[in-house]
Amino acid sequence: METYQQLTNLSTDTELLIALSLDELQALAETSLSPKSQIHLDKLLMKNSENQLSNEESETLDKLLAQVDQLNILKTRARYTLNQFQEKHKVA
Hints:
This protein is mainly alpha-helical and about 90 residues long.
């Protein structure tokens, strides 16, 4: 009954990624952009700092930065879920 109550309490937190295994959460927490995307992002950021972006490059930069933002949110939620899982198992 105690384990059920712990899981019920965890499932009310909408930030938790409860449908993933611990291995999947760990992999997600350590995820990064692909090397190709990271190189492209770095080049675009450099050009942007020099005010040399075309309109198309500016749009691409915006899309890549949005992807980075979403990836960081997912990584944070994965870490948070792992931490909550670990905390609940310390108490149990």
